[in-house]
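Example with several molecule types.
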Amino acid sequence: MKPWANSGLGRDLHLDLTASGSLSRGLRARLVSALRESIRSGRLGADTTLPASRTLAVDLGIARNTVAEAYAELVAEGWLTARQGSGTRVADRTGEPPHRPRPHITSSLPSSSPTPALSLVPGSPDVGEFPRTAWLASARRALTAAPNEAFGHGDPRGRIELRRALAEYLSRARGVRADPEQIVVSASSGHGLWLLARSLEGTFAVEGYGLHLHRELLHDADVVTTPMELDTLGAQPPDISGRHLSAALLTPAHQFPMGGPLHPSRRTAFVEWARTTGGIVIEDDYDGEFRYDRQPVGALQGLAPDQVVYLGTATKTLSPAIRVGWMVMPEHLIDGILAVKGIYERWVSATDQLTLADFIESGAFDRHIRRMRTSYRRRRDALVATLAERAPHVKVTGIAAGLHAVLELPAGTESATVDRATALGVEVMGLSTFRHPDAVENQVDGLVVGYSTPSSARFEATINALCQALPAP
Amino acid sequence: MKPWANSGLGRDLHLDLTASGSLSRGLRARLVSALRESIRSGRLGADTTLPASRTLAVDLGIARNTVAEAYAELVAEGWLTARQGSGTRVADRTGEPPHRPRPHITSSLPSSSPTPALSLVPGSPDVGEFPRTAWLASARRALTAAPNEAFGHGDPRGRIELRRALAEYLSRARGVRADPEQIVVSASSGHGLWLLARSLEGTFAVEGYGLHLHRELLHDADVVTTPMELDTLGAQPPDISGRHLSAALLTPAHQFPMGGPLHPSRRTAFVEWARTTGGIVIEDDYDGEFRYDRQPVGALQGLAPDQVVYLGTATKTLSPAIRVGWMVMPEHLIDGILAVKGIYERWVSATDQLTLADFIESGAFDRHIRRMRTSYRRRRDALVATLAERAPHVKVTGIAAGLHAVLELPAGTESATVDRATALGVEVMGLSTFRHPDAVENQVDGLVVGYSTPSSARFEATINALCQALPAP
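Resulting structure tokens for the full complex:
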């Protein structure tokens, strides 16, 4: 069999001439038959561009004229169209009954645009403010400068360029004690938590109210969760003499969803718990960059880098579309995490890693965060002012930081309020969604209002619709 | 507490003035002390740029002069350096004993550059040929044109732009019956296989020789694997009357690592097995784009789209750095996969997805593949010619397609040959690495030579070193 002398140009087209009838038939007839069947079956859809006749002829090892004649025959039959300049394409035969209808699956699946008209679901930044130009400039610099090995199988800890940039940034801006060697790049905080769950196993203590997605993810990784009670100082540490827990998952800078910082006495108490029992504190710093008052709330990790795993993510600062997160690890846990992560760089785009490294080092990340901090603070102030005017009986809490507020509702009104909001076209989540099924503290009725989620153009309309949905005094 | 009136410019710096001694001390003294301690502890490393004094003053809510004086004091003490134009930075105090040495972890971890000097490990394209310019052009077009919602939480099936582009490409070039609604974007073939394992569970039949990483991944997902015997026609289908298997994992276009195509009679037999038992065929089309003769080997999926899951990846065609793979799914399996994948777009970069969609639709993907096909065919021919001259007693097989060849060795010589190659600086893998521990067929001694892995500059030296390592006739 001769090697395939295809040219470096053109497009690939899979055709099996041996399957298109007897080999004694002429080549042209077999080619016409194979093309016609590919179109009739729907494999080659309307408007698919076919290779130039010269290219296909070389690929199939037949004369160019044979291909040109086959194309012409199918144009004459109406299967193909040929136009000067745009090549030969499959004709649009809409209206004719297709030989084999293509399946169209729409029923039980989420739609392609999961965000409804108006949304206050927490967890998303203002996606209209993604810094496209600056990001593309970083991508151009980073991909141009990257060594060739950056395009090969990577270090499972992540690109060194990104780990260096993060070490500097997290030390400076979040008070983390970070060395590039201690950082493991993940695809998101969730991915990091999943790696920890597979690596540590056992039972994790979680906050009585917390992100339901994290509970589901831990369950999926065969980790049992037990709730820690929340009071005005934040989460209460597990009993030191009680049964062994592998880890305690916390949101110290800004409790999710309640919104307060973990009290300094509790910070110390969790570190003490970890030192005494050998458990690990997992610090989910999901929106620590966004604080609107002068009270600094640095990372808990800075107090006890050997007891705390710090989790960060680009989701809130940049976009959930950038699937990059980071873990700052105590040294003794790194090998276990890498064993789970696999010997190949599992599931983190190297192009995004390189681009983010440049984005941080060039100062664009700090600039973007500071710009967005100003923008979100304005939104928060507008939300608080509107509620004070239109629903003064509703108490707003958890607003010193972050991208969401908690609206406390009269007992028993949460579910009806969420339903009214839905009917008014606003998706908003009740506090009960975030409550651990075994939580011991009293249930609080309330809404978790992600005020960073709406676009600027829709912000006012969304807040107005929310006010309409709130229960009367 | 007043809102934080920070400007939109500058850099963040975390400092806790309340922790820096008694509040009765002057502000400047507390600022100096907090900064000095941050540098002494190593949190702020050498060369870290500090915010401009104006920025830090606004952030901390203190007078600009106070910050300027504190900076000046620390410059005088040697903790900081100040240069016109480059701002205030942490001084490089190398040589002084640090207050708290930073951990440096090097011992048991893989090094940052996992590829040794010379490598013939299969599974990597020539990373020096990554089409940086064309990729960046696609990124620019795609990110500029993308709707805002592209930067939010995505559809768990993946971006519609990419699923449309893939449906056209896979139908045309690989003979897949693909509709965008049936495609689920994953982070890699491995990610896709992991999702299938978590969704289907049970026991999977795998080829007696196959990718060890896939076996490890299935094991990690709690799936048991049982080997199928390979003969000259390819894998033998499982016994229809035997115990139930959830799935059979195959490499039909180019058996990995042996290198032959699955015989048409076996293709039919596997489809028959799936139809009879309800098992799923998983088609790993890991390098189907690279075939060097005119025998077309289209996707098995085209024969039985309701029984076959087709897995593809950008790893071999573009780069392992692009963490994008795709699954073409039978309709009845999609809900199960999406339930495992999670309601958020888990772990696939939307920027890479959008860029790849443009890369395919603009024709750059076809052009790149055709160019690389020519380049790899030349490498293959050079490998075969060199071996024919220098080691005519070594049989080379599996070379009609793909990016690797199998070198058959005399019985009992494989391990020593791999060791000799290592001593000569060439990493190469023996066939035994890929053998299932329960495989029944006779063990074959051989090498799996990934000839796409070396850089062009090192290709000849690598092949020469390989020849030196081969056993004498």
